[in-house]
Specification:
The structure holds two protein chains of two kinds. In chain A, the strands form two sheets. Chain A has a seven-stranded mixed sheet with strand order 2-1-5-4-3-7-8, covered by helices on one side. Chain A has a two-stranded antiparallel ribbon with strand order 6-9. Chain A is globular and about 40 Å long. The N and C termini of chain A lie far apart (41 Å). In chain A, helix 3 links the parallel strand 4 and strand 5. By secondary structure, chain A is of the alpha+beta class. Chain A has one domain: 3-Layer(aba) Sandwich (Glutaredoxin). Chain B is α/β, with parallel strands linked by helices. Chain B has a six-stranded mixed sheet with strand order 1-4-3-2-6-7. In chain B, strand 6 and strand 7 form a beta hairpin. Chain B is globular, with a radius of gyration of 15 Å. Chain B starts with a helix and ends with a helix. The chains are: A alpha+beta, B alpha/beta. Chains A and B meet through strand 9 of A and helix 5 and strand 5 of B. Strand 9 of chain A pairs parallel with strand 5 of chain B.
């Protein structure tokens, strides 16, 4: 009996810890149903033809996110047709960051000509599941039947300041590897970003 | 590293402001010694940026710590502001606030290399703070109130 209790406690603890830390490589990512800037609701399951996704937690107001806007759009242009569309999710509390409201997101997306869905995590329930802590924060997911396996977590590349001086394109390298059925060369990276406002 | 510093000194002094010599800009190698001093002081190293609202909010607490524990503590504020905003944001901010703590600027784009060297727990979000002395070291991926910060610093002094 005591052993059972201990086991249950350990399981609970393990669940609590993993919930707190979000996904690691190999985890199965949860689908979501979030409002897009065009008023529609978007889920991963809407994309029948895709092989996976480049999920980017990003926003309007973080200078790092802004520095990467054009590169996020370029990722979608390059990889949506290959089966890995970009799905951008804005995770901030808009009361703290009014510049990240759905209306502001729509304006920014129109101005920049984003071709990817730009969703709002208005309940702030999705980003904690993934374990996103900052913007921008990328998760590359690979579709496997009905599931989505986390294959890459981290930064877009190794130079936020100057796209022309990038040496390592972490996300592109990850998706290219997945497209060739190879192992992702670098599956986790770190970068400075703006903490998600809760 | 020195080259970067000199470059900024020269470019600012030629260009427009006499206050720019305040700015000390380094790559990671240039700031590393601030993370591993080996004397009798307690070092409070805070990573921040003018664009980071929670960072700016807690800066006065770090200033207060520097005042309150003058004898035992050295506060080092490491700015992660973008080089393109040194002149427009960072220098005016520093001038306005007249910070008494040591302020240095880290400009090193290869973040995936240096973030883990500061702490294995750091995911890259700021603010974060490192408190250490020659015997112990603790990393705080969080914001501080004055009381919380002061209570942590005291643990290192006693």
């Amino acid at each position: 009996m005591n052993k059972l209790k201990l086991l249950l406690f350990t399981m609970l603890l393990a669940t609590a810890i993993s919930a707190q830390n979000g996904y690691d490589i190999g985890a199965l990512a949860t689908d979501f149903n979030l409002e897009n800037i065009d008023g529609s609701f978007v889920s991963l399951s809407d994309f029948n033809e895709s092989k996976g996704f480049i999920v980017v937690f990003t926003c309007n107001t973080c200078p790092y996110a802004v520095a990467y806007e054009d590169r996020i759009e370029a990722l979608n242009k390059k990889y949506a047709k290959k089966g890995y569309p970009v799905i951008a999710i804005m995770p901030n509390n808009t009361e703290i960051k009014p510049g990240d409201s759905l209306d502001a997101m729509r304006k920014r997306a129109n101005k920049k000509g984003f071709t990817f869905p730009y969703l709002i995590d208005s309940e702030q329930a999705v980003f904690p599941q993934y374990g996103a802590t900052k913007t921008p924060h990328v998760y590359v997911l690979q579709k496997n039947n009905e599931t989505h396996i986390v294959r890459y977590i981290g930064a877009i590349d190794d130079n936020y300041k100057d796209a022309n001086k990038v040496v390592l394109k972490y996300v592109e390298d990850a998706v290219d590897a997945l497209l060739m059925n190879r192992e992702v060369p670098v599956s986790k990276t770190l970068a400075i970003g703006c903490s998600i406002k809760i | 590293m020195n080259f970067i510093k000199v470059f900024f000194l020269v470019s600012f002094s030629i260009c427009c402001t006499s206050n720019a010599e305040q700015l000390e800009v380094y790559d990671f190698d240039g700031i590393e010694h601030y993370l591993k001093q080996n004397d009798d002081k307690v070092y409070v190293v805070n990573f921040w940026a003018t664009w980071c609202a929670p960072c700016v909010k807690e800066l006065p607490y770090f200033e207060q710590i520097q005042q309150d524990f003058k004898e035992n503590v050295e506060v080092v504020l490491i700015s992660l502001d973008f080089p393109s905003q040194y002149e427009s944001k960072l220098i005016p901010f520093l001038e306005k606030k007249q910070l008494t703590s040591k302020v240095i600027v880290l400009d090193d784009t290869d973040m995936n290399s240096w973030i883990p060297k500061i702490d294995s727990e750091w995911d890259g979000a700021i603010p974060v703070t490192l408190i250490y002395n020659k015997d112990q070291r603790q990393f705080y991926p969080q914001s501080f109130t004055y009381d919380a910060l002061s209570s942590e610093v005291r643990k290192f002094i006693n």
